[in-house]
Design the sequence.
């Protein structure tokens, strides 16, 4: 007998997992699928991780609406989902006199969007951020902006949704979708799945998925953004997110602290094919040049990683959050580029309340628990708390990652949760093991063997990231 | 006439050997010895590792007690591949005597408790 | 909080040698902290030979070399803790470590020797261009997988960088059945020792391409191919010089960096080697904190690591007996012509011992003379027929000569 789900979400990025969590507030049979082997593996794990204030989107757009709503939801979400979040604020800086006019325009835009901002003089800027180019003329300060741990936001949203009854299917790539009777048949690379409502949150592939239902008048034209990630070698290079003035291509190349105390510099912006997350020297050189205009003393020699991510830029230049034209039960949530992270929880509420409710009877889930079980993040605990944790479980005393001081206990804790990591990067994103200057040089073998033991498989089966990205080719003396 | 790089020590002297087997460029007498050996019957010490049967994903390192002819390296490796031991191991434990009749033993080079 | 005379952080070639020497010089209240589950550090995975020629006058493998020190540590009953990671350090020498058995422990040390070794420059640090697939791995990590765990990282291998670990791994992987296609070095000369070029590459017909680097890594999930391009004298890629290699593995042997994250917690100046600034006693700018081995500067020969660490161990003993006067006149040591760095970076006048300067040249040079000068005064001169960057150079200066020094000493390498 085929199981017909009430709702099927395609794509376990920040949008999909937030929708899944929102749906788990109701008594539903919901399933979320992703072509990756983990939640948040693609765009959601390679972006600036900024919780934007909302001063920038054009008033009246979906971007403006969801950004401003989402921003207000974050303080509670990070508490419920136990995610690192620093409400550090942002500065958008003018380096030339004539740019001060643009700052005033942005201030007016903020007023319409309902975002608190303040214009700062040169002196005020340099007092807040002494390392900014002394040629700075002024800045727009947005105190409600913040930086978040993007990996655990998505993973913990997924975990919370799973804990509240949603099923998560990894490695399921959608091949085709057909309507049969009153439900959809979603053909995947694995089994066929059935659902009354389908939510398309497929990121850079959302147009492909939407076209399986009807002809669409929009497309996703992914834009790649390359970044530098710097070590957290010392505090105070910058203390918040520093933006240049926005342009047609986006918010420009920023310099920011991250929730983990590193520094991030980027992104570039160029059109790319939807699988291309490579980096290249000329683009990185341009980023370096642009960022150095704002903060001349960025120590690029402290780079520990360069990476790129894809924005799901849409030809409509706004978020698409609406049912398919021919089918109310097929909901497109597409073109979620920046400010997608901050908007995701607001989009999720809207999707469930305004688009799912009219087509599906929703009954409250009385057992819904908004919180994930707190994680031990030893680094943030007091000495007594750390000793208490080690006393209860000595694994918290055994450090596996020497750079970030991540314990065996923290890794095992991630493995014991309902959305556990299956790859080296999965462990890294959840626990920060391998996130430091040696980039896993010392701890990767230990973590790989731990994963192999945990899943009872050969070390050759443990991937770096996606299935297929194996690290160990064979056991010695075996394949000669 | 032949130019060689001495591999006896990290210094890596550039050796020059003339047609009458006179060696120059060597910092120490071992360089001369090496050069002549390298041109007449080149030999190498092999270091490798073998399985420890009673430990999962654990190897113990081994070496040849004497250098073996260079052209026998892969044959010796094939023999080494067949070897295994049980922990504990002690440095110097002989795993295989007189490997391939080359007058060199395979010995353990690491203590595993 | 427990008070202790000396803590040695790390138990590799440097840490054990330092602890042994300190103990022999009368330091009885000491402790070695080792983050791993056994003593010996990275030598545990260096199963090749070539160690110990200076220290023991015989050729040993890494594990054999380290065992000599382990035996001595045990004979001298020097206490050590395994699986103990130091997580914090203060200017006042309060140190915190974490371990399964003890939890978080704070120690108030009178002296500390940092012997934490180095880590490998990786794909991130060199901004390796191209895809983020698996199959790109640093040489040391591949070495650990292979030699400790018996896990092979690939079948068809390209090696970027001609550092010694890369060369050693080229041979090791070949012997274990992999096909090593080539070694690519961005510089016009090798970064490894001559003898390793011979016995690891030439012996196995593995080509070494100089002035060539990876211009693109290609692979969806696992590495599929690597593109090498020639570089000009400014190390910039020259277009249309691509060579393509189908391979499943790219091993990076692109340099080692002192692993001194602990120094970030204290006000200890760091030098261009990325290790601490030290005086002739291997003492950092924080009196009582000493450092030696690869966490100070990366060595090519382990015997010299142990030698340097013994100096640190003896110095710590002197310091504990108040025999080092940190208030003495400081003489700065500057790298001059053709030299990339020189250690120590400063010396305290009235030295207990003669001083050994260690340095590396910027490029291969022939027929040179090493000059030790203060202003116009030549303090010492050593003739060197050949110098290469991969080989650390040591020159001595007698302590009496220090009296002739005005304010600084410049070490330089000049044509003969």
Sequence:
């Amino acid at each position: 007998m085929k199981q017909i789900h009430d709702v099927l979400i395609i794509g376990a990025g920040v949008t999909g997992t937030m929708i899944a969590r929102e749906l788990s507030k109701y008594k539903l049979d919901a399933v979320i699928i992703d072509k990756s082997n983990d939640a948040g593996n693609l765009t959601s794990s390679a972006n600036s991780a900024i919780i934007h204030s909302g001063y920038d989107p054009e008033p009246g757009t979906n971007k403006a609406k969801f950004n401003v709503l989402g921003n207000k939801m974050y303080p509670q979400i990070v508490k419920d989902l136990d995610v690192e979040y620093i409400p550090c604020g942002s500065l958008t800086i003018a380096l030339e006199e004539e740019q001060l006019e643009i700052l005033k325009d942005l201030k007016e835009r903020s007023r319409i969007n309902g975002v608190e901002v303040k214009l700062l003089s040169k002196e005020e800027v340099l007092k807040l951020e002494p390392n900014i180019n002394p040629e700075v003329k002024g800045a727009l300060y947005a105190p409600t902006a913040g930086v978040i741990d993007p990996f655990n936001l998505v993973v913990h949203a997924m975990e919370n949704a799973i804990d509240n009854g949603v099923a998560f299917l990894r490695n399921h790539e959608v091949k085709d979708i057909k309507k049969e009777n009153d439900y959809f048949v979603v053909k995947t690379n694995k089994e066929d799945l059935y659902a009354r409502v389908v939510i398309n949150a497929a990121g850079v592939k959302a147009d492909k998925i939407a076209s399986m239902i009807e002809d669409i008048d929009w497309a996703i034209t992914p834009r790649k953004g390359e970044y530098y990630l710097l070590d957290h070698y010392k505090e105070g290079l910058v203390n918040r997110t520093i933006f240049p003035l926005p342009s047609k291509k986006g918010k420009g190349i920023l310099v920011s602290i991250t929730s983990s105390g590193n520094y991030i510099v980027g992104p570039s912006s160029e059109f790319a094919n939807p699988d291309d997350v490579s980096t290249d020297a000329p683009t990185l050189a341009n980023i370096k040049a642009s960022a150095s205009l704002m903060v001349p003393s960025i120590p690029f020699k402290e780079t520990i990683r360069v990476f790129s991510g894809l924005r799901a830029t849409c030809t409509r230049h706004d978020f698409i959050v609406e049912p398919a034209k021919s089918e109310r039960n097929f909901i497109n949530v597409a073109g979620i580029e920046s400010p997608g992270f901050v908007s995701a929880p607001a989009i999720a509420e809207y999707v469930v309340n305004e688009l799912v409710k009219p087509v599906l009877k929703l009954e409250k889930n009385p057992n819904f628990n908004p919180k994930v079980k707190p994680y031990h993040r030893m680094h943030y605990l007091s000495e007594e708390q750390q000793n208490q944790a080690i006393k209860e479980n000595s694994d918290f005393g055994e450090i596996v990652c020497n750079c970030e001081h991540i314990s065996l206990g923290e890794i095992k804790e991630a493995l014991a949760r309902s959305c556990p990591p299956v790859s080296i990067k999965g462990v890294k994103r959840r626990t920060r093991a391998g996130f430091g200057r040696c980039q896993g040089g010392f701890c990767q073998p230990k973590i790989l063997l731990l994963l192999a033991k945990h899943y009872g498989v050969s070390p050759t089966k443990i991937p770096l990231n996606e299935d297929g990205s194996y690290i160990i080719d064979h056991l010695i003396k075996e394949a000669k | 006439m032949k130019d060689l790089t001495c591999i006896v020590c990290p210094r890596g002297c550039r050796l020059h050997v003339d047609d009458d087997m006179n060696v120059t460029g060597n910092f120490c007498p071992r360089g001369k010895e090496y050069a002549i050996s390298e041109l007449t019957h080149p030999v190498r010490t092999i270091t490798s590792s073998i399985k420890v049967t009673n430990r999962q994903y654990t190897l113990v390192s081994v070496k040849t007690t004497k250098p073996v002819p260079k052209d026998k390296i892969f044959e010796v490796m094939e023999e080494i591949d067949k070897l295994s031991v049980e922990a504990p191991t002690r440095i110097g434990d002989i795993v295989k005597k007189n490997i391939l009749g080359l007058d060199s033993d395979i010995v353990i080079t690491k203590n595993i408790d | 909080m427990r008070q202790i005379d000396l803590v040695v952080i790390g138990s590799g070639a440097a840490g054990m040698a330092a602890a042994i020497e300190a103990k022999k010089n009368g330091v009885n209240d000491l402790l070695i902290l080792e983050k791993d589950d056994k003593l010996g550090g990275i030598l545990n995975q260096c199963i090749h030979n070539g160690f110990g020629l200076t220290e023991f006058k015989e050729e040993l493998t890494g594990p054999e070399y380290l065992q000599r020190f382990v035996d001595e540590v045990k004979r001298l009953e020097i206490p050590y803790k395994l699986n103990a990671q130091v997580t914090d350090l203060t200017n006042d020498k309060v140190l915190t470590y974490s371990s399964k058995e003890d939890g978080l422990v704070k120690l108030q040390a009178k002296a500390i020797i940092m012997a934490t070794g180095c880590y490998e420059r990786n794909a991130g640090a060199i901004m390796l261009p191209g895809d983020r697939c698996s199959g790109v791995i640093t040489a040391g990590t591949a070495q650990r997988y292979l030699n400790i765990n018996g896990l092979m990282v690939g079948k068809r291998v390209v090696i970027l960088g001609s550092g010694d670990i890369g060369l050693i791994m080229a041979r090791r992987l070949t012997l274990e059945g992999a096909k090593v296609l080539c070694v690519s070095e961005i510089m016009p000369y090798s970064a490894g020792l001559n003898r390793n070029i011979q016995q690891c590459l030439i012996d196995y017909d593995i080509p070494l391409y100089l002035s060539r680097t990876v211009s693109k890594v290609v692979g969806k999930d696992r590495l599929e191919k690597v593109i090498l391009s020639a570089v000009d004298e400014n190390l910039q890629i020259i277009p249309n010089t691509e060579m393509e290699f189908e391979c499943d593995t790219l091993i990076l042997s692109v340099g080692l960096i002192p692993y001194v994250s602990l120094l970030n917690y204290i006000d200890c100046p760091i030098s261009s080697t990325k290790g601490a600034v030290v005086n002739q006693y291997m003492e950092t700018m924080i009196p009582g904190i000493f450092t030696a081995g690869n966490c100070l500067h990366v060595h090519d020969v382990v015997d010299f690591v142990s030698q340097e660490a013994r100096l640190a161990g003896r110095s710590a003993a002197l310091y504990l007996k108040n025999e080092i006067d940190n208030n003495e006149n400081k003489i700065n040591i500057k790298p001059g012509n053709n030299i990339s760095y020189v250690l120590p970076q400063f010396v305290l006048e009235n030295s207990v011992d003669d001083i050994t300067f260690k340095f590396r040249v910027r490029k291969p040079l022939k027929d040179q003379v090493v000059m030790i000068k203060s202003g116009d005064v030549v303090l010492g001169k050593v003739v060197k027929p050949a110098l290469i960057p991969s080989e650390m150079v040591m020159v001595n200066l007698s302590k009496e000569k220090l009296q002739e020094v005005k304010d600084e000493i410049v070490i330089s390498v000049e044509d003969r």
Observations:
- The longest strand of chain A covers residues 192-200.
- Chain A touches chain B through five residues (CB under 8 Å).
- Chain A has three domains: 1-85+148-219+315-374, 90-143+223-311, 378-461.
- Chain A has a mean pLDDT of 95.
